[in-house]
């Protein structure tokens, strides 16, 4: 067997999952400007996805709403809580 057959399979993330992870990290670091910019990227991605495909099979709208609420709490000075989704629990490299 070749070495390719022995590779560990890494679960694939959607681009929106990666952006959400970056958003969560920006929130943890209290980099609200970056978090806000990433939230705008997520909003744009969701708008284009809905207009092109009629939405996502997963509850992307719920994740976006949670991210929006978290950013608003951070901007207001309250504690932001944990990651916005399960994607936020992964280690960032």
List keywords for this structure.
0% strand; disordered C terminus; 93 residues; 3 helices; mainly alpha
Short summary:
By secondary structure, the chain is mostly helical.
Description:
There is one protein chain. This protein is 57% helix and 0% strand. It has a domain at 12-73. The chain has helices spanning 15-28, 32-53, 60-76. The radius of gyration is 15 Å and the shape is flat. Helix 1 (15-28) packs parallel to helix 3 and helix 2 runs antiparallel to helix 3 (60-76).
Q: Helical proportion?
A: 55-70%
**Overall pLDDT metric:** 77
In DSSP terms (H or I, runs of 4 or more residues), the helix count works out at 3
First-last Cα distance: 31 Å
Contiguous low-pLDDT stretches (5 residues minimum) are 85-93
DSSP strand count: 0
Strand content: under 5%
Categorize the overall geometry.
flat
* Series of secondary-structure elements, N-terminal to C-terminal: HHH
- Please state the CA-atom Rg, rounded to the nearest Å: 15 Å
Classify the secondary structure makeup into a structural class: mainly alpha
Largest sheet: none
How do the strands and helices of this protein lay out in sequence?
Elements: H1 15-28, H2 32-53, H3 60-76
Helix pairs in contact: 1-2, 1-3, 2-3
